[in-house]
Amino acid sequence: MNIELELNGEVKKFDQAKTDSLLDLLRTHGYTGAKRGCDTGACGFCTVIVDGEPRNSCVLPAAKADGATVETIEGLGSQSDLHPIQEAFVDNTALQCGFCIPGMIMRSKALLSENPDPSEAEVREGLSENLCRCTGYKKIVESVLDAADRMNGDKAVTDGGTESESNGRSQNGFDCCGGDCR
Ligand code: FES
Ligand code: FES
Q1: What domains lie within the chain, and their CATH numbers?
Q2: What pLDDT digit, counting tens, does each position of 116-152 carry?
Q3: Which one of 39, 72, 133 would you pick to mutate in the ligand 1 pocket, going by the greatest count of ligand atoms within 8 A of its CB?
Q4: 5 phi and psi, to 5 degrees?
Q5: Cα–Cα distance between 40 and 19 in angstroms, integer?
Q6: pLDDT tens-digit map of 11-57
Q7: 86 CB under 6 A from ligand 2?
Q8: Which ligand gives the minimal distance to the CA of 59?
């Protein structure tokens, strides 16, 4: 069936099987930032923003997204021009394997759009549907609070780990937050 999306600001058409999820659609067309973890709506690794709301794309039928506006991490920033949320995650070393991070960042973007100055409790609540098997969440929460400061102009934005690159990797040793890993 034909599905049309406004995907990261561009109108795109896809010919997709009726049974496919939005995550299937995205990943088969190269948008591999959204990760497939549980595939049952329980981990948040596949979070993208649909019509302004964070959604687990693994349990959203692609057909139901027809006509929607979809934002994925590929539209957020690039390695040389990170979004402030991505910069905050890098600068606060909020990741280990990085598998949960694209979903965390998209959930954080939706949260900060709704509530630009959240408390720590509000960040924890806002991210409660997104699991991380590595970090213990503390640095992730700190990163979102830091990102809020950056986006509110309360804090100078640093280089996001790119200035000291010598081998194409950022300061923490990972090419994370851009969703480039598969
Ligand atoms: S892969 Fe979608 S919620 Fe886990
Ligand atoms: S950094 Fe590994 S799952 Fe979150």
Answers
A1: 2-75 (3.10.20.30), 77-174 (1.10.150.120)
A2: 999 999 999 999 999 999 999 999 999 999 999 999 9
A3: 39
A4: -130, 150
A5: 14
A6: 999 999 999 999 999 999 999 999 999 999 999 999 999 999 999 99
A7: no
A8: 1
